[in-house]
TrEMBL record:
PANTHER family: METHYLTRANSFERASE, OS06G0646000 PROTEIN. One of its GO terms (biological process) is methylation. This is Class I SAM-dependent methyltransferase. CDD domains: AdoMet_MTases. Residues 60-149 form the Methyltransferase domain. It is an enzyme of class 2 (transferase). Pfam families: Methyltransf_25. Keywords: Methyltransferase, Transferase. InterPro entries: Methyltransf_25, SAM-dependent_MTases_sf. GO terms for molecular function: methyltransferase activity. Its EC number is 2.1.-.-.
């Protein structure tokens, strides 16, 4: 799962026993050599799906990490692009990889932007927020977008209960719950707390109009349904 340039088991253990912010500060120099980085295929599929919905001017990557989302935003946005994250270590890596972008350190549950962007994206970050925290996140993205602006992020279809992947994710979440019950500070990272119907409800409550689009390039499940879809949450033009 990890390249030789990736973190050791000891480094991962130290990260897992840290807070989310401190953990990612520690992991940042080797993050792009782990399977946690958003795969290029997912970035490409997202960019392909968003292309016909543009053009866009200003772009924002929410929970940008080391800046992988810039591979989506830069080709689509005619104006500037910005990444926001609360990990100084991750932002340092992003700044080195993409010096032409703007980087902002902030808690995305309290985004410091007001009607500044036309497109916002996010990749692999929702599991770091408890369900009770999503309304603040989505409301902040809503405020950050101009009227008519779009918030887009890919989401995986839930694996069937008969699959190894289902039980792997369930086991991971159970381990994390036990860890957070007995160890402080907590490290919030869950894979099964973001079902689409709850995300759709939270986005709608924040004011978005929500649709989804399949990402067929990423394959199909056994029943023929797509393995991934793209959530498209638009701030109404008159808002």
């Amino acid at each position: 799962m990890f390249s030789p340039q990736g973190p050791s088991l000891r480094e991962l253990a130290i990260q897992a026993l840290s807070s989310v912010e401190r953990g990612y500060d520690l992991l940042a120099p080797k993050f792009d050599h782990t399977p946690f980085r958003t795969p290029d295929g997912l970035l490409a599929a997202t960019a392909d799906a968003l292309g016909p919905l543009g053009p866009f001017d200003q772009g924002l990557d929410v929970c940008c990490g080391t800046g992988a989302g810039m591979r989506v935003l830069k080709p689509l946005c005619q104006g500037g692009v910005t990444g926001v994250d609360f990990s100084a270590g991750m932002l340092a890596q992003a700044r080195e990889a993409h010096p032409d972008a703007e980087w902002v350190r902030a808690d995305v549950r309290d985004l410091p932007f007001e009607q500044a962007y036309d497109l916002a994206v996010s990749f692999g970050a929702l599991g770091h927020f408890l369900p009770a925290e999503r309304p603040a996140l989505f409301s902040g993205v809503y405020r950050a977008l101009r009227p008519g602006g779009l918030f887009a992020f890919p989401i995986a279809a839930p694996p069937p209960i008969s699959s190894v992947w289902y039980w792997t994710l369930l086991g991971f979440d159970l381990v994390m719950r036990v860890r957070n019950a007995v160890w402080r500070p907590p490290f919030v990272m869950y894979y099964r707390t973001c079902p689409l119907h709850e995300i759709r409800d939270d986005l709608t409550a924040a004011g978005f109009t929500v649709t989804t689009a399949p990402l067929p390039a990423l394959g199909e499940r056994e029943d023929g349904s797509p393995r991934y879809g793209l959530v498209l949450a638009r701030r109404p033009s008159g808002s």
